[in-house]
Predict the structure.
Amino acid sequence: MKRGNIKLFHKVSIKSKFLMMILSTAMVCIAVIGFQGLHYGKDSLTKSMYDHLTSLKSARTQQIESYFQDKRSLMKTFSTEHTIIDAMSEFSAGFNLLDIYKVDIDKNASMRLNNFYENSFVEMLNENSIQEYSHTSLVPKKEVVKYLQYNYIVNNPVEVGKKDLLESAEDKSYYTEVHQKFHHTLRDIVKNQGFDDLFLIDSKNLNIVYSVSKEVDFGSSLKNGKFAQSSLAKVVKDVISHPDKGIVRVVDFKNYEPSYNTPQIFFAVPIYKGSEFLGVLATQITVDAINNITTGYKNWSHDGLGESGEVYLVGRDYTMRSDARKIIEQPEVYFSDINKIGLDKDSIKLITAIRSTVLNQLVRSEAVKRATEGDDGTVITRNYLGEKVLSAYAPLNLEGLDWSIIAEKEISEAEQPIKEFQKALLISSTILATLITFYAIWLAYSFLAPINSMANGVKNIINTDKFTKINLSRDDEFGELSNNIDKMIDTIKSQSKEIANKSKENDALLLNILPQSIAQRVKAGEKDIAEKVSNVAVLFSNLKGFDNLSQGLSSKESIKLLNEIINEFDNQAQKFGIEKITTIGDSYMAASGLMQPRLDYARKLAEYAHKMFFVIDDFNRRHASNLQLVVGIDSGEVMAGIVGEHKFVYDIWGESVNLANNISHQASLGTIRVSQSIYEQLINKDKYKKCSGEILTYETIPKDRVS
Amino acid sequence: MVTILLFTVSYADNKLSTGIISYTPVEDKDSVYGVLKCKGSTRVGRLLNVWVPSFVEMYPHIQSELSFTGTGHGISSLIDGSANIAASSRKIKDLEMETFYKAKGYPPTEMKVSLDALALYVNRLNPTPSITLEQLDAIFSSTRRQGLEAIVNWKQLGWEDKNITVHLFAKEAGARGFLQKHVLLGGEYTTQNVVNDKHLTALSVTDEIEKDKYSIGFGAIGIDNFKVKMLPIAKRERYPEYAPNTKNIKNEKYPLTRFLYIYMDVPPDKPIPKLLYEFCKFMLSKEGQTIVLKDGGVPLSPRLIGIELAKIQREGI
């Protein structure tokens, strides 16, 4: 960090730093977790989408495969059931009887049969076909076919599509006897085993000697009849050419004319009585049966396929083998879609008419291509309507049917959860960030509150000199710190008091040694105090006879006596405003006008000198002693200052000091001798008399003094 | 699973099933022509003797030659070409089939024309209530493949201590072969107590039993003679016994139920001649089977008719 930044950093309050610390940590965490969450979330959502499609595809694959397996094993079982075997043989017999005797129907019946073909069957067939059928080419010519179709379809009181409800026709033929015997059971097989029709076909002429549903294939020969080219005929001929016991054959979806050209699948298996090959059992299943599996009974959302997902089957010819979801759910939307993508007109017509995408909806997607090549996997591709889709694909393992299974979902929808997840993540991150900010502020505040209290407490002490305790009642480290600070405040408080006392003592001590003004300067820390002061009067006094007095006395008694004198001198000096400089033994040095300049400095000092004589006189009287005093005074310019560093004294020096000292020695006992400069300032000059000597001095005997 | 409904079609005993279809002669009557040469079984001959004339009546260009001297003769005549319809009261024997196949290179076309049964006739004074196939084997066989001791005396069957007198069919008769196969299980006929082994018709058998209280013999059903009676037959002891009535014969419960056949020579690569085709249709039609009924026989079921006719079905006709 640059020095400037550090400075800036130091300027920022701890609270802000703390806040920044929490927030930056939290935000980094949110950002990292959010980013990771987003990354892994997106990955896992995409993966789960693929996994879901793949597992759905596998489930449906298993269902389709077992559906066909079930149907095959049912067919195999049926082919050996006595009921089927007996029915095959008896229906054949009944059919042959009618056929051999050429039992015909009357004219009226023929007309009604004709009308049925013309007005009912062919009309509906043509709606579902590209080519135009004419009823004349479809009406049967063979007597037995006419007979059976008349009796079981035309003369059947039940509506088309439910012709199987008729148990027996009103003719008294053996065929009807057989029909009455077996129809109920065979119809139950169809109904209960999920087939759409069941056929019994004789092995000789491939006559459909029986069918449950009684469509227009009923009675006709698959060898040379009208539907000899149909897929049913194909699979039956397969069985006839290789009539292996128990081998079930299947034929892929193909439009089947008798079922109004709708796509149908047929299974066929030979029927044997012992070693005798009697005929073929065939069954039919429609698209609905397959759709029920691929659409999970139209329950796409239950399968987690949302709005666009679906499972469908595709044949090797790249057309569908089950219905697209859209044609079931939103046929109008689907029809407009296929017009838009430009599917060929015939296919569109058939899809619209039959309302099924089977065989007509082309699916040339990458998924189908790969599945057709035998691969199994997932891919992003465009589906049959050109939508971008997530697609899981696999080939189906169905004997006789070359189909693939596709499970797919539009990308736009597949990614919806990812987008929602991102949105949710963003919203929750924002909320979290806001909450964390508030929390951080509160945390910073509450965390720093004791520090602030302590800082304020300390600040308060500094500002007001009042030692108020912080008194934080906490048990944590702050509490301990605050207690310690409180203890410290106590200590400082008592120490301050002591320091104040000591300071006072020091001051007093200093004042004893130094003049007050100098003392203050020394206390203020001033060093090398020395100045030249003019108009200063300097006094020296010498006490004579103290040695005699103190003879025979202890040093303690002796000093006590001396102190009595000196103290009185000091008292008087204070009274007169005289500045005591020092004592040397029994000599006393004082000045006037030194610290505080004054006009009457000479006169005041002279008056003080007089007072000193009175002090001595008083002392003599009280102690019956005979102490004598001499005083010398001069005035002028002096040097004053602190001398010495550790053991300093305030001293004055200069000519006036020397002179005052000199003249104090020259003065006669009990007199005050002053210099010329003093003398000139005195008021009572008359009391002084001029002394002889090199220097002009004057001497006086203090007033009222008893000589 | 599938419930198998056992559905029994019940026929009124003396009524023809409504499923049997009436014969309509073809429009172009000239297209059906030729000679119907029928030989063989006397039993089937009883029917052909009525069928052929009735059929011939419908078509102006048909002649007929009828001669019934036993099943064996019919098959051999078919092989040598002296007959185009061989009447047979039993299924063709393996040996006969082999001979036919050797001569022609294909099997004869077989057609069931009626249900029939062999009855065991005894004198009406005979108190025996019923008899089993095992006992019949013990009476009629020397090899006794059904495992019982030989029965030669009525005492063994709980009646008087009298020898059983036995009547047998001649070797040419279809009944002899049928019984040998189904009662003797391919064994040999006995010679003990056999008073006559040259019978050709049931009538000749019952005529003799009528006169001999202790006699026993097989014969076709439908013999109207109150001095003899038919015994109900059970497969073996403690099995249910069945009388040879129409009901038991139709549902084939009666153990000695048989079919009456005709055999024809139809090369497999050619369609059956229209003459034979239409004649077969007639025999198995409502009219033809009514004749069976009138003869005291049991008509075929429509189912069998359908199956039988399918064998000769002419494609595209």
Remarks:
- Confidence is low (pLDDT under 50) at residues 1-12 of chain B.
- DSSP finds ten helices and twelve strands in chain B.
- Residues 117-257 of chain B form a domain with the D-Maltodextrin-Binding Protein; domain 2 fold (CATH 3.40.190.10).
- Chain B touches chain A through 27 residues (CB under 8 Å).
